[in-house]
Amino acid sequence: MQTSIAQLGIYQVCHSSDEITVVCAIAMERIMITEQDLAQQFNVIIEHTHPRVWKLLRQCYVKVINPKPYLTRANIKICIRHRHARYIGIYCPDRLINAVVAEKNLLREVAEYVGLVEVVCLNANNLVRDPLSNLKQAYPHLWLDLLWILTQEQ
Fold it and tell me: Cys-Cys with 143: which of 73, 90, 94, 136 at CB 3.0–4.6 Å?
């Protein structure tokens, strides 16, 4: 463990359990992979290993989803089993959703390779145009990104 902490640039000598906890927390913070990094890794793997599927995905918005499920009787087992599970969400324009769903097994394999649990394909047209959606207010950056992919033609 000392070599990994030293590799991270942490050279403190700890004298109490509280100091060890702090050093471990700092080490974990430095090696944590962000959701954006995971989505980027997913895209790079698809781009290099499956160029045909990449032609579809480059027209979509790919995002790692870190769910915060509400505990109900129906999903309590899933919550316990996948407490820190992350999913890959692929927001597709209407014209591509069927083609992307057809490649879901391949996408799931790549997602599992980078440590994600599942692939979820979402229709970006429906999300943006839903009159009852609060997506624009709750996640304005995501809403603008979805608008962008919907306006692109290929």
Answer: 136
